[in-house]
Amino acid sequence: MQQHLSSFLPKELDGADDLLAAERQHLLKLKRILEAQLRSVQKQLQVLDGARKRLTASLQERSRVLDLVCHAVSSVRGAGIKDQVERPITPPVEPLGPYTPECARVISTASEARQRSTNLRKEVAEAIEQTVKLQKAAHQSVNDGLTQKVAETVTMKVSYSVRWNVCVLHV
Fold first, then answer.
1. Counting runs of H as helices and runs of E as strands, what totals does the chain give?
2. How far apart are CA 17 and CA 6, in angstroms?
3. Within a 10 A sphere around the Cβ of 19, how many other Cβ atoms?
4. Nearest-5° angle of CA 10, CA 11, CA 13?
5. pTM for the complete prediction?
6. How far apart are CA 79 and CA 154, in angstroms?
7. What are the pLDDT digits (tens) for 21-36?
8. Is 103 buried (19+), middle (13-18) or exposed (0-12) by CB count in 10 A?
9. What's the distance, CA 85 to chain centroid?
10. Is the distance from CB of 1 to CB of 109 less than 8 angstroms?
């Protein structure tokens, strides 16, 4: 098993390491926030899937009922007579009619789920936008700090080099 030489060297943390560690913690916090948003989106997708399934089942049931009603009406009126085509309107809620209270509840639930999804989509978009801004600000802060550290290091090297040259000249 080979070990790197750097593993034997003492590890001294400086300001740059602190900046990078703080940025990492900040980014992990942003990750947790976005993961929480993701969980709420997943839950909402499950709600929407349930609403879709209930709507489909209700639609199929109502379709079968309306087919039976149409057959009964056409047999009474005569097969060749057709009514004028009118724009469909939502009928009143009647337990025995085509628009039952169950249908009204299913449609209402689906409508509410769709509205919650719209709101959640806006919240997630805002959260992502805010996260991108915070991420860029964190990167900029770390870059500025590292640039400052490099400048300090260069200044120290130049200063040390000048002192060394002065010491050598005096000796």
1. 2, 0
2. 16
3. 19
4. 145
5. 0.59
6. 97
7. 889 999 999 999 999 9
8. buried
9. 45
10. no
